[in-house]
């Protein structure tokens, strides 16, 4: 115990004696650990955000689309050859799937500009045409006014429900939006409802910068929808799997998919979308640790170099200690402790910088970043391990020095 305390004291004295050299030696380790801590905080924050956003859709809901999710590389040309999903498919699901409670259809056009007589938005609003059931399957709720109903859809009435970002841009404080007229592509629409604030998806895309209108009015504005997205709600969470099977079998029959052929449409649940994101995050995690390992190797080479220099500078001191009775194990432990302490200090500095960057990302991106405890422990363990591995050779070299020859050195 006393030997360990003495080794720590000697290591600390070495650091304080050469602070600038020690800090420059640690640079590679600091960069590697900072990278890991920051990336893990972002990924963990995104994971929590994804789970929260998807939970708004409900535990008994799933989506059917012609297109796969946008994660990863997608051969869009391949999927464009699939048959479109139509409103007739939606009605068939309503009539033929007993485990389904509600089904809705929607299509979205992005990059739109909305205006009033005195204000206008930037061309970044997403305009969605939907059926009346969409409010029941989307996890949204109306803060004021109403959502459009079946009569509005059938008649193609030019009514609109606005997200709060659009409301705040078009209507200054004190002006009641309900009943006001807005214009989309030059056509007038009457505001009948305002949605409750939903925040942003993944901390990047605002879910409040939206306008909803009846599907028929949407088609008159943007042309006939080629393929709709379907949102399906099961009778209960327990019937979710059965509802998926019923919808899948029905659509396969309607689209003439052969028995052994894969589906030519996508069925996505909250769990499947979470799994897709987790797969992507695993790739990012592995890449982050690759960067960390590379930086740690660079830092380890620096530690190896500085420890060899330290052994050379302190040859006479080592000779005197051995002449006074210090064993090889004590000399080995002294220099190994210095190497581990040096790398561990770099790891601690890297963790501090990582927390700072995570806080900065939270402030800039607007969503929670969480540093996992295992990432801190693993980073410190890896950095101290690198110090031990790269410090063994200089420590062994010091332990093997002949005391007489060492004392003669200048």
How many strands in all?
A: 13
How much helical structure, as a percent, in the residues? 55-70%
Q: Which geometry do the CA atoms define?
A: elongated
Overall mean pLDDT stands at 79
Structural class of the secondary elements? alpha+beta
What is the structure about, briefly put?
This protein is of the alpha+beta class. Helices cover 57% and strands 16% of the residues. The strands form 2 sheets. Strands 1, 2, 3, 4, 5, 6, 7, 8, 11, 12 and 13 form an 11-stranded mixed beta sheet that branches. A two-stranded antiparallel sheet has the order 9-10.
Structure explained in plain terms:
The structure is a single chain. With 410 residues, this protein is α+β, with helices and mostly antiparallel strands. Helix content is 57%, strand content 16%. The chain is built from 15 helices and 13 strands. The protein has helices at residues 2-17, 19-25, 27-55, 76-80, 87-96, 134-137, 150-155, 164-170, 215-222, 240-254, 270-313, 315-323, 328-365, 373-400, 403-408; strands spanning 61-65, 100-112, 114-115, 125-130, 142-145, 159-162, 181-184, 187-195, 200-201, 205-206, 210-214, 229-234, 266-269. Strands 1, 2, 3, 4, 5, 6, 7, 8, 11, 12 and 13 form an 11-stranded mixed beta sheet that branches. A hairpin with a 2-residue loop joins β7 (181-184) and β8. α3 (27-55) packs antiparallel against α11, α11 packs parallel to α14 (373-400) and α13 (328-365) packs antiparallel against α14. The longest helix has 44 residues, at 270-313. It is elongated and about 100 Å long. The two termini are 33 Å apart.
């Amino acid at each position: 115990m006393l030997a360990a305390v003495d080794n720590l004291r000697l290591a600390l004295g070495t650091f304080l004696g050469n602070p600038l050299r020690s800090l420059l030696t640690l640079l590679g380790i600091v960069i590697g650990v900072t990278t890991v801590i920051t990336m893990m905080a972002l990924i963990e924050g995104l994971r929590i955000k994804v789970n929260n956003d998807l939970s708004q859709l409900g535990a008994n809901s799933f989506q059917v689309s012609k297109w796969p999710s946008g994660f990863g590389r997608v051969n869009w040309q391949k999927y464009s050859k699939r048959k479109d999903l139509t409103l007739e498919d939606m009605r068939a699901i309503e009539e033929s799937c007993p485990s389904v409670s509600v089904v809705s259809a929607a299509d979205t056009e992005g990059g739109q500009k909305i205006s009033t007589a005195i204000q206008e938005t930037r061309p970044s609003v997403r305009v969605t045409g939907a059926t009346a059931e969409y409010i029941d399957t989307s996890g949204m709720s109306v803060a004021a006014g109403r959502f459009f109903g079946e009569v509005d859809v059938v008649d193609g009435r030019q009514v609109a429900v606005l997200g709060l970002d659009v409301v705040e841009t078009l209507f200054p404080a004190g002006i009641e939006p309900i009943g006001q007229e807005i214009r989309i592509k030059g056509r007038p629409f009457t505001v009948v409802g305002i949605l409750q604030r939903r925040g942003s998806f993944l901390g990047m895309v605002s879910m409040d910068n939206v306008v909803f209108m009846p599907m028929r009015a949407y088609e008159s504005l943007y042309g006939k929808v080629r393929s709709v997205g379907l949102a399906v709600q099961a009778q209960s969470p327990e019937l979710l799997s059965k509802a998926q099977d019923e919808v899948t079998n029905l659509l396969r029959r309607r689209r003439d998919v052969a028995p052994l052929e894969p589906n030519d449409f996508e069925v996505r649940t909250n769990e499947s979308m979470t799994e897709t994101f987790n797969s992507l995050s695993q790739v990012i995690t592995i890449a982050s640790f690759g960067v960390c390992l590379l930086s740690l190797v660079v830092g380890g080479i620096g530690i190896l170099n500085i420890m060899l220099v330290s052994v050379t500078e302190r040859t006479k001191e080592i000779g005197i200690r051995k002449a006074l009775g210090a064993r090889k194990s004590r000399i080995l432990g002294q220099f190994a402790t210095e190497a581990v302490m040096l790398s561990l200090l770099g790891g601690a500095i890297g963790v501090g910088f990582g927390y700072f960057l995570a806080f900065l990302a939270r402030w800039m991106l607007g969503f929670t970043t969480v540093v996992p405890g295992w990432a801190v422990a693993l980073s410190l363990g890896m950095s101290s391990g690198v110090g031990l591995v790269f410090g063994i050779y200089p420590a062994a070299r010091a332990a093997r020095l002949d005391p007489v020859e060492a004392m003669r050195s200048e």
